[in-house]
Design goal:
The chain is an alpha/beta fold. The chain has one domain: Rossmann fold (3-Layer(aba) Sandwich). Helices cover 46% and strands 8% of the residues. The protein has a four-stranded parallel sheet with strand order 3-2-1-4, sandwiched between helices. The longest helix has 19 residues. It is globular, with a radius of gyration of 19 Å. It binds iron/sulfur cluster (SF4). Iron/sulfur cluster binds next to helix 4.
Length: 231
């Protein structure tokens, strides 16, 4: 049965892949599901990993783009039948994971028998389900996974200095502080999220729009910083 690594490109799955190879565990396929909303640094990282391990990463793309599902896809069932676009995903509406990751992977792997390796660290062991989780088996924590990656020369061009978790830059499940950093340090990506926000039929965490957040929290902070010149 072939061994397939699901690589999100973050610290945990990267450390898992490198550790597996280091321990001589065969890796037959490495799969990365591209949501189209990854940080640009993530693509550089994937290239770097490929060079380091001398293997090609299989990149899977969904049938249509994140923007299409967010804005245009006409729903065919449920309370929002006939409405265009799924809008911001939420805890109970994670259409993005299903459509942009799970379905492309299922389609790709088909009926082929495989062992699926997922990079979940030991401190997140409650998330393990039915696949293989070497970091949990080896008791490797998130901090250890990151430090292992750094030691092997992978630094995502500083992304982990800005964010605790690195996933889609517009993930609506991120913390307010992550949005704050995105706005300050990655204005192009923030603007992309704001563009979508204007057209979302849902709010972030069902509470506020990104525009609300900017108006109520960040703009006020900026004003204070300007007035008192504090960083
Ligand atoms: S990181 Fe967030 S936006 Fe991206 S697929 Fe996962 S839940 Fe969706």
């Amino acid at each position: 049965m072939k061994n397939v690594v699901q690589l999100s490109g973050g610290k945990d799955s990267t450390a898992m892949l490198l550790m597996m190879l280091e321990r001589g565990i065969s890796v037959d396929d490495i799969v990365f599901c591209d949501t189209g909303k990854e940080f640009p640094q993530m693509y550089d990282h994937l290239e770097k990993v490929e060079k380091y391990i001398g293997k090609t990463i299989t990149v899977l793309n969904p049938e249509k783009s994140f923007d299409y599902y967010f804005l245009e896809h006409i729903r065919t069932s449920g309370d929002y039948k006939g409405v265009a676009g799924y809008g911001w995903p939420g805890h109970k509406r994670r259409w993005c994971t299903k459509i942009l990751k799970t379905e492309p992977f299922r389609k790709y792997i088909g009926k082929e028998k495989h062992n699926l390796f997922i990079g979940i660290a030991a401190d997140e062991a409650h998330r393990v389900k039915k696949y293989k989780y070497p970091l949990v088996d080896w008791n490797v924590t998130e901090a250890e996974a990151l430090s292992y990656c750094y030691k092997h020369g992978f630094n995502w061009n500083g992304l982990y200095e800005d964010f605790r978790r690195v996933s889609c830059y517009l993930c609506p499940l991120q913390r307010k502080n992550d949005w704050r950093i995105l706005r300050k340090k990655y204005p192009d990506l923030w603007n992309d999220a704001m563009r979508l926000d204007l057209q979302s039929c849902f709010k972030l965490r069902d509470k506020y729009s990104l525009h609300d957040l900017e108006r109520r929290a960040f703009a006020v902070e900026d004003l204070f910083i300007d007035m008192f010149d504090v960083a």
